[in-house]
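Structure tokens please, single chain.
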Amino acid sequence: MKKRALTLLEVIIVIFLITLITGAIGYNMKGALDRGRAFRTEQAKAELHDLLLICLEEGIKGEELVKNPKTFLKQFNLAKNSDKIVQDGWGDDFTIRYNANKNDFAISSTSYDKYKKKLNQPVSSDEE
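Here you go.
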């Protein structure tokens, strides 16, 4: 039996098919990373809000918590990684505001707000 090598045309067809399949997969995955970051941000905001309320109940003043939340999260051992919990999915620090009248915190992320605007979704400026 005679051994036959691949012709140049066959190699080009195989490369074309691999490129086509890779392109289709890449197109379907477009935006998946940003959706994951947005989900992580939403979860982190909720968790951080709860942890800050716990610190508030421990007697720490809200204004002090807003200035340096990492210190108090470490002090009370409330978060496994207190440096990461105060960051959104894009790695930027959250903006935390304390409302003394309601005794509550408003946590926001500029990267998350930009992502929502890009999707034409309403951005809530007074989220928990």
